[in-house]
Amino acid sequence: MKKKPEILMxxxxxxxxxxxxxxxxxxxxxxxxxxxxVYKSTDYHCIACGVPKSEAKLHQWLEAHEYYDIDYxxxxxxxxxxxxxxxxxxxxxxxxxxxxxxxxxKTEEEVIEILEHGFKVLxxxxxxxxxxxxxxxxxLGAKTYNVEPYKQTSDFADWDKWRLVWEGKEYPPxxxxxEEWQERYQ
Length: 186
What we know:
15% strand, four-stranded mixed sheet, globular, alpha+beta, single chain
């Protein structure tokens, strides 16, 4: 199995496309079949850090994650593949969600441990990280192992222009406006 630590560099999914994903499109039964195939494809190892699921931290299972390209100017998120991740690597990528659940679903100490795990994987591969993840880590006092954030674009498509592109089809935002998104998440 060839590891893909670069998956940990992924930015958070843009807010207009929160809750728009293959699982919600396919339905849980088809998603479960797909994710089991994905786990098997790496002999049940995390694609980012390489840990076998039986040795993964906190939970001894894998989680399926959409590996995507984002065109911020056009507002398109194209899913390239679905990849198996351990719980720590998966949460590291979803740092925006993780920031919202501190003190609810995860303690600050758990979040720091997850962040340090991801930053160690990035440091070992000499990779950069998503800026929000770096800022969250420094705010919480987590070790970043000298990993630096990469520059991001400031040229974003309007909310209603965003689409998830998967298997040749485009899916619009679930939330019509930022205010509607805010009601749900804040």
